[in-house]
Amino acid sequence: MTTRPRTQVRVVIAGGGIGGLAAALAVGAHGHHVTVLERQPELTELGAGIQLAPNGLHALDVLGVGAEVRETAVPMTELRFMDGVSGEHVTSLPLTDGYRRRFRSPYVVVHRAELHLRLLDACRRQPRITLRAGAPVAGYAQTATVATAILENGERISADAIIGADGIHSRIRQQMVGDGSPRISGITAYRAVVPMADVPARVRRDAVTWWTGPDCHFVHYPISGGTLLNMAGSNADGTDTVFAGVPVQGDAVRAAMAPLPAVADLLSLADRWRAWVLLDRPPIDTWTDGRVALLGDAAHPMLHYAAQGACQALEDAVVLGDLLGHGGEPVPDVLRRYAEQRRDRTSAVQHVSRDSIRLWHAGGDAALTRNRVLREMTDDDLHDAIAWMHAPRVRGRHPSGATR
User: Fold this and answer.
1) 3 state DSSP class of 180
2) Disulfide-capable partner of 339 in 78, 259, 286, 287 (CB 3.0 to 4.6 Å)?
3) Helix, strand counts (H, E) of the chain
4) So what's the pLDDT on residue 403?
5) What pLDDT is stored for residue 395 in this prediction?
6) For residue 44, what pLDDT is reported?
7) What is the pLDDT of residue 396?
8) What is the pLDDT of residue 5?
């Protein structure tokens, strides 16, 4: 079999978060040179727990870090759906034998910082990847043959392609699409992490548990090898301002979650929380401009209700790396194909993430109807409902042409 000659491509990635580092690994694996430019002074990741369905874990396996992530990830046995008003267990989506056979992987949870660190360490081991913190990208310029990232200090870094993985407030997207600020959902999210030793025995299970109520919901699950409990609540309070990681006292969180009496004892476990307003954007058709493309939250930011934000960014990265491959095709054509392959899928996940608010925040008769419908669903019904999201969707070719 004849192997195409390799053409090295130089890629600049704006953003050193999960999506940006994953893209660097995917592109670097094919022998291309990558420079990651991160706005913050250090390459770190904030936040707490993150859920990884089989499609996300499969992408991590392709990137070569799946085994390392699994070392501290906690495999879940079920997704538990609880009525936070009555305390009733409505249904559970099992994640053990049948689920793992069908989707060829477990469903795991992991600390966001741990996932980021695994990707970061893998990038540091790759000699073709250059990491630069404290290098905020303000925009780009391009000719027919070169794309140039323009930093806020005026420095210009040229390459064959620029990937905007710079998040929901992406400067690359701002220049490319010009669609203004993200959409404010009117929902405030509260997050805290507590030692598992402080948690009531009834909560110490390997499950993602959702407690739903009118205009709010609460979720918890173990992270860091089961030593910590990640807790997150959402309240549709109508907020219309943007804030992120703001310290909040426990009394304020307990007041916001008052419609969920079934979790009052869990809310009392933490007095220090942080709050975020939930943001997203509607799907767009424009992901590319010549030699420049968007990835992850810069392309398709979504609410967290489908727990697919990181998974979709990881899929983006694998597809991008595969298509760049040996580097023999014109870069603008490759980026257009990347967008065509990813746009419809991520758009569907964006829509279901927003539509899921009605599932999590129902009250009164709507909640009773929801509970009845969910109770009537079999395990196969529940698995069928999420198969389009959770099933691995990216192939992941080795540079040799083999698949993994």
Assistant:
1) coil
2) 287
3) 13, 20
4) 36
5) 72
6) 78
7) 59
8) 53
Sheet of 49-52, strands arranged across: 49-52, 108-111, 74-75
pTM: 0.94
Q: Which residues have a Cβ under 8 Å from the Cβ of 336 and sit 6 or more positions away?
A: 288
Write down the pLDDT at residue 401: 37
Angstrom distance (rounded) from CA 120 to CA 51: 19
Give tens-digit pLDDT for 310-346.
999 999 999 999 999 988 899 999 999 999 999 999 9
Q: Is 54 helix (H, G, I), strand (E, B) or coil?
A: helix
Q: Give the CA dihedral 298, 317, 164, 21, nearest 10 degrees.
A: 100
DSSP class per residue in 338-358: HHHHHHHHHHHHHHHHHHTHH
- Distance, CA of 118 to CA of 126 (rounded, Å): 13
- State the DSSP code for 196: G
d(CA 195, CA 364): 34
* CB-based burial, 122-131: b 16+ in 10 Å, e otherwise: bbeebebbbb
Burial of 312 (0-12, 13-18, 19+ CB in 10 A): buried
Which residue, among 44, 26, 110, has the nearest Cα to 76 in the 3D structure? 110
The DSSP result for 144-167, as a single string, is: SS-EEEEETTS-EEEESEEEE---
In angstroms, the CA 233 to CA 325 distance is: 42
Q: Which residues of the chain have pLDDT under 50?
A: 1-3, 398-404
